[in-house]
């Protein structure tokens, strides 16, 4: 039988959805480079987390990915970003606006409508989409963020978590292939945070490519395919959560970032000579399995 090689094409052979090469940026008013020689790829359907101290350049990187830098915010940009195969410097901002959705930290500042439906219609109306198209999209979009019963709710009555899910829904109205979320849960209470993470996980399962800046390291470790660590505008590390937290030293050394509690506890056991390094994991279920076996005496 003839070998069907196209079915076993590896991820690495496929052009990434986001490709960043040697990206540096300095704001017009600034006197230092805020991003310095950053390169990474994000493949279709992946979720890449970004962590870093305040001022590390995370939001600036998001603005670059969305094309707001250089189109709306000026400065000196060098290097290249291809978003969905298009060079962000060369393609008009309106094109990127449709294909790349963005959600910011503050839920209040992103709401423009008096009620949910009005809010969702605002973006597409501005781009002169046909009203019947807009209306047709609202129901499915609200289901995707689990707000299906809220179409006529006044926006001021929504909780923080609901507001952030509405902001995600607004982005989804444009049917973006890439979604960038810049600290979407840092102003939410634990319930709101959990709701938003559940929504993000659903979107990931639906095939959306996602860049997620967040400090919530436990949640990020569970959901991210990779985590990028930014420090002073430089990419310090880019790896899977499993690899990062098997050697959590760089996270532990830097005061600004926590390690998932399970990984930290396992790291402690390793330091005490009780656990092998390759058993350390940031995933709770995996850790429970390993520690359970260890306590029963059939581990190490
Ligand atoms: N419009 C601007 N002009 C000049 N400097 C800026 C501007 N916006 C942000 N910065 C500076 O860029 C650095 C990185 O900011 P930012 O990207 O917001 O970091 P983070 O999101 O990681 O906290 C900070 O030192 C900040 O003061
Ligand atoms: Mg920021």
Helix content: 25-40%
Main sheet overview: 6 strands, mixed
What ligands are attached or bound here? Answer: adenosine-5'-diphosphate, magnesium ion
Structural class comes to alpha/beta
Helix-strand sequence: EEEHHEEHEHHHEHEHEEHHHH
Task: Give the N-terminus to C-terminus distance in angstroms.
Answer: 47 Å
β-sheet strand percentage: 15-25%
> Roughly how many Å is the radius of gyration?
21 Å
How many strands? 10
Low-confidence stretches: none
Number of domains: 1
In CATH, the topology is named Rossmann fold
- CATH superfamily label: P-loop containing nucleotide triphosphate hydrolases
Strand order in the largest sheet = 6-7-8-3-9-10
Name the average pLDDT. 90
What does this protein structure show overall?
The protein is an alpha/beta fold. It has one domain (15-259): P-loop containing nucleotide triphosphate hydrolases (Rossmann fold), CATH 3.40.50. It has twelve helices and ten strands. Strands 6-7-8-3-9-10 form a six-stranded mixed beta sheet, with helices on both faces. A hairpin with a 7-residue loop joins strand 1 and strand 2. Helix 4 crosses helix 5 (131-144). The termini are far apart. Bound molecules: adenosine-5'-diphosphate and magnesium ion. Magnesium ion (MG) binds at residues 58-59, 182-183.
Task: Provide a short characterization of the protein structure.
This protein is of the alpha/beta class.
